[in-house]
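Run folding on both entries below.
>entry_1
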Amino acid sequence: SADAAPPKRAPLAAAAAGEEGRVRGFIGTLAGTEFATSPLSNSRKGGLLGLAAATVALAPHTDPYLSVIVPPILHSFDDADSRVRYYACEALYNVAKLCHPAVTSHFAGVFDALCRLSADTDANVQNAAHLLDRLVKDIVTDSEDFEVDAFIPLLRERLQVANPFVRQLLVGWITVLDSAPDIDMLEFLPEFLDGLLNMLSDANREIRQQADAALSEFLAEVRTARGERPYGRMAEILVARADSPDEFTRLTVLTWMYEFVGLAREQLHPHLAPLLSQVLPALAAQEERIRNIALETNAALLELHSEGMPIREVVRSVQAQTRSPFEATKLAALEWCSSILTRERESVLAILDCDSDEVTSGAAEASTATQEQRADVRASSGTGTTGTSPVSAVTSSGARLGHSPGDDAEEGEPYHRPLARDILECLHDPSEAVAVSALHLLALVADDEGHFSWLVSALLAEFHARSELLTSRGATLIRQLSAVLGAEQVFVGFSARLTHASNVGGSGAPTHRGGGSEQAQAPAAHGGESSDEAFPLSFCSVMAQALNLILLTADETRDLRSVLKSACAVDMEGSAAAGTAGANGGEGDGPGHAHGRALLAALYPSWCYSPVATVSLCLLAEAYDHAAALVGAIADAECDVETLVQMDRLVQLLESPVFAFLRMRLMEPRKHPSLLRTLYGLLCLLPQSTAFRTLSARLASVPPATFLAIDADGGDGGEVEGQGSGGGGGRAGASGLDFRAMLATFRERCAERNTERLLHNS
């Protein structure tokens, strides 16, 4: 009829006719409370199907209506009814397939929906979501309008989700975008690298494999990429993941670190300290592959140039690893300390100097005492202040290692456990390799005069505080130190420090001072405050015995023994001439004799803490007159059990190759009568024991009649040997050694030992 309403036209026809308002109203009805957002699930399903159908009908003129069509579909992904969620996936699939801007312009909402739907509890919804996901990926990779910068934050905030389905979806997106020719995902690698590394420890094998494949592909791209890359940011991520309990994650992280070292080189300097804090512990990993890659990485890091390296941070990092319970880590940390010290000595010493207060007590005073010994040796050997004898290399300047901690520290730097303390602790390590490595590092520190005195004081303090170190490893440490620094410097340094340690303010052993020798003044530690660290006589005695045994038996002290043998030796073919020369002032003495006497004078004071050690030292130096006088002094002081034990050991040493020359001297008893007196004196002091029988058998090779003839010929025979006469006499004119004063020092030490023993027993 004429009053009937005109028939409604299809949306496409209406749109074509320019009736946009009617079309928008129609779509609004589908998206409104009557359908898409209706309380009735069937109405919601119908609304979603209607929106998809409208999109198909409007194509290709759908773009103006997407702002009305897409939001209700996205809203339906949260619906409680799984069928509604399924229809929402179907609707969005149809919309996106016909209108790509539906995805690109609403990508944040679409991606969020995909992440949620991939973990949906309904299998049909999951399958529908996977189909939608593949379509969206195709649209994005083909689109020129896709903004990767906007996508990366969405990806990053979801990478820590533990759901396996979500993780698979994320890895898939990373892989797809990386394969797109127009997208450079390496630029954004730091944003999602941590998330991929985190997936390597996932319980799902498939996820681990996918994450590993993605990481392997990115690492291959990093190797071939040109231009600068954000290695620093990625290094920080690797360090954070390197201590993962998952071995596969640690292996992957270390592999990346190794590649980065080769690619970035010195660009990694700012991150070197944290890198080392993870690489060094990995050297002790149980997994062999981890240990191997850690070894390669550590070797590569060691090859980096030190220029521009943050020395203080690196030193602190490796210092912490010296406290590791694992041998491999400690050895590597000590190697790093040695490497940095060799290349950047001043910087490392500055760190040592400013924080080692607690390990340097007494260093300055010992330095002064040691320099006095140096001046004595120079004067006695005739080298003056420019002498090159190893004895003259003994340190004389004060060690700044006694500086107050933090005096030179950078502003704001926290107080750290002293580096020197940690290195010294390594000397006590159960592993001898660690202890030796630590000692070599300390020897590098002591390569200059200012720190050698500190090292001697520190080692003595360690031996005193923890006697088991001296007992179990003292000989090894001192021998190794002698091999690195030279036996003469080491023994003279220990002797000077021991002499000072229990003789502060007291009388020391007399030494000869040549005219014109300079006495340099050593600055004291602690800003000028003296530090008198005294050791008990019992410790000094044990230390003297240990040094004496090393001197007589170690290969490292072979040259030192040769020098000492020249101290008072008389040429067997011309002893009378030598004696005459000595009486005339020593004109016949060469530089070798002067060097030997200077060394004997330097060692003698500390050897006096052990009477038998002093006798053996004089026998080695062929000071037989004085040795005989010492035996008499020992008898006067009454022998205790310790002295008898030391005599027993001396007899054993007399039968060793070291004293072969002495046994040969017994073939000429008239030239060396005091040697016979010394040995017979020891025999008289020894109880009836194996040592007594050994020495008695040796002396039996000398005819008693010969000895009686010597006694009848001239008292102590001192003139024959050219050592002077009287009081254990001393050839003072020829050698510059005042044996009378030396004997007085020896008697004083014996009296002190007796007093200490009596006090201890009471």
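>entry_2
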Amino acid sequence: LHPHPFTFMHTMAAAGEANRLRTEGTSLLADEDFRGAARKFSEALSLSSDRTSDLTPDLQVITWWELAMCYDKLGELDLFLDAAKKCVATDPKNTMGYKVLAHAYRRLWRYDEEREAIKAGLEADASWFGSSEDTESLKKMMSKVDENIRDRALYHEDLLTVPTERPILFGGMDVESENPRLFKEIQERRANGSAYFNMKERSPLSPLCKKHRDLDEYAAGVRPVIKALYNSDLLVKWRVVTRSLVDAVLTIEAYIPGDTVPFMISNHTASEQERKGGYFASYPENQKFEALPFDERDRASVIIVQRFLRQKGCEVARFLFQNDFYRTIDNICTNCIQMKLYKDACDVRLLLSDIAIATGFDWIDRHVISLAENLEAAKKNKLAAAIYSELASNDSIFDGAGRQASQTLMHGHAGLAYKRAGDYVNSEAQYIESLRLEGKDWEFTDPAENNASNTLRNLILLYDNVCQGYCCGILTSDEDVHLMKVGCVVFALLGRAKIIRVSGGSFQNVANSTARTWRMLKPKFAKERNALNAFLDACAKPNVNSYQITLLSYLKQENIEFPRLTGKQKEAAQKDFMMNHRLNGKTAARDFLATGSNFESFESFGCANCDKMEGEDEKFMVCPCKTAKYCCKGCQREDWNKHKTTCPLRKKK
């Protein structure tokens, strides 16, 4: 007889209860009810914790293993690790416990400790089944963890802090100490009023980070992620893998400081064969991030890259070829445009331009042009126009921008940006400068086929806008009236010379409304053969004031009467004018970006027709759209039927 019969009976009942709970837990586990199974296993183990007769050691090991698997499936990694440790402690000679413990460390990205757990398992006296199956499995795990440890050694670890000052941001480079010459030049340009180097958008924080985020609006589990992303320290681990001379991958892992598991992994690829960059993100099983709304996840990928480039951009650029780096960042900008984050697209473009300047990359002007395009989409048209104008000057810091073709193009883009901003005076000045640089030998053709014709088209539409604004009572200043007089003379001259009657061109409507304006000209200039030369003579003047004076001198009389609308006609015209102005100022610029920029980098591309690569001692011919180049005129002619279907300058029509 048992010396304590009541205790013995209670123990037997508890043992039966523990086995019953474990059996129920196993059934729930098979049905993938991991929460219910974990509860049953925990209750079973609690009953046997102080009674060696409740569950045998082997059953206790299995129960701890099953409980650990439940926590693994639930993503509760700390509880998973705790259960795995108790599985080992229950029977230190059973390799099953070491396997689950190693798995728990791997889930927590603690590879050194995973290796120690596997090593301890291999040193155990015997496996649970008395066979070598578990031992062989542990050896395979050891091989895998050694590979992971070698792989993790390639990663750089950096803590991205929130700057409290407003430094000169150039991708993390301390320009003042690392490149004093560049620093001095930047300071001089700032003092001289450089639009680019005085940009207020060059901020320690990205536009997204400047937006207030109320943590109370988020679930408690994701608040640490929101805080780390927007206004606190963010830990990143990153590496660059160059798979070939034309293929590279940049991987960025984002962590909350103190965590061992990243809440997000960004992989940015650049492939020369595809001539573009790619991007994809993955989210490790992390409860702090799983409850985050999907739109916040998309924004998180942008914020991580913005903060990373601010402090580590120049360092990353040293690991990548120029084209790989350009394509990688260009793809990030594309993602911003798709999410309608236009200010953040500007921010990334500005970072890319700064990094290119700091590291001495080529084709800097291409990136600054793309920045200006994004500024237009963000409704910062005057700033974009000022940057275009700065690019048009012979400026050595913007490599490649000093060629005459680029100057005319940049003045034309500046004129369009000023027009979208409603600054018609400066818009006219930029258009006229572009035409002056073209000279007198260009052909008056369809605007989509000729850079100068396109500029002329935009100039005429500018004058037409001013006339409409005056007639409906919106543009009434002396400058507007003066501009309208000049525009009428231009209409008269080009109408008389039949330049604005290009078949199927955009000048047709303007020509119809100004067919009789030539009668206000002096007889000499009203003749068809003299009208064109008179206009070109005016465009050749050294500045816009001389251009205007010359044109007004062609009039019979100085005073010109202009009709003005009244009543309902005036109200309707005002609404149409304002609507068109808004569309031209924002929608057109954004649609342009959505279909692709004119100024993609193509320096590594060969001839668009025969794929011949450009040598050091030869220069290919470049289409004015800047998206194709040719080794000879023959290739350009052969490729024209194909290129004209995609040429951005033709699309503008």
